[in-house]
Amino acid sequence: MVSEPLTHIIQMAFSATNTSNAAANGIPPLVSPPTINVTKLSKDNYHVWKAQLIPFFRGQGIFRYLDGTISIPSKEISIAATSSVISNPLYEHWQRQDAIIVAIMFSTISENVLIQVVSYTTSAAIWCALAKSFSSQSHARVIQLRTELVNAHKGSQSAHDFFMQIKCMTDELVVVGHAFHCDEIISYLLSGLGHDYDSFVTTITARTDPVTLEEVYALLLTTEARLQHHNTPTIQPAVHVATRQHSSSSYRGQNIYRGRGRNYRDASFSNVSNGRNNFHRDTMICQVCDKPGHSAKKCYHRFDVTYHDNSAKSNNPQGLIATTSSVSASDWHPDTGVTHHLTNNTDNLNLQSEDYTGSDHVQMPPIIATHGRSSVGLLL
């Protein structure tokens, strides 16, 4: 008669292939996980691949097969009462479960890496072989990442891109077992910012309360937005003047742009005293009455807006501009909403009438420009 313990063992052996019966007899059911979609293991991403598989196998309750926690059961067991040997149902269960794990691992390994471990038959052996194979490479990668962290600079990158660069490198180091404190990551981030972010760096380092990485990221984006706002060029208000670029005479840093006044002769500069330029009386021509021997400053008709020189030969009112910077804009802006325009180039206008003889005039001290004159800029 077969003893009760022997009967129990035989029942376990015959029911090992049936999942429900195996569970009823103390043998856990086989775990057959669904297809896992992870980045395949290559020569450059071992730690990323490992970081994906560990939580998956732990979630299925089978990671102990990989780390060797579950030892391999013996293939056979001996029955002392009958001196017989039977197959161990626990071994058969382990063998089937481990084969499922090996199949999952092989499906997540690229071909050029798979050839290195294809000869191993257990999941634990494959796991250990991969760890040894990539250990030296991992050490070199750690040194490389730490060097890149120290030398990282924002440069022309956006604040978001620079933050993600630092975060990715520190995350990869965490995967290989080099943990980082939040303050250490922030220090790498702050050291890589340029001079424009000095106020931001001062604000963060002066904080007495703990600051999180997420808070630093939000403040960094805000600071970048403010800097971009202040650095955006604004359109400066300008008088809408149509002008043609002329050659200029420069004397002691002052440029004088001459209009096309009638009978205007080039003046000779002489008798320079106390930094002021004077025309020689023999060649001085008044710009108001066009008479020689005196300047516009001493002309009797200087403030007479009704004065009109009948000897005028030009119908193109123009003015002189005295400026310390060159006027090079040549664009004509007619549709501006203003009621009057001022130009030193009558080619921009369509003049159909005679010289204007009204009382309106434009005055810009120390230069007075009046309508109806061919050369209205006054040289004082």
UniProtKB/TrEMBL annotation:
Annotated signal peptide: none
SUPFAM superfamilies: Retrovirus zinc finger-like domains
A molecular function (GO) term: nucleic acid binding
Pfam families: Retrotran_gag_2
Coiled-coil segments on the chain, per record: none
Protein name as annotated: CCHC-type domain-containing protein
Native source species: Populus alba
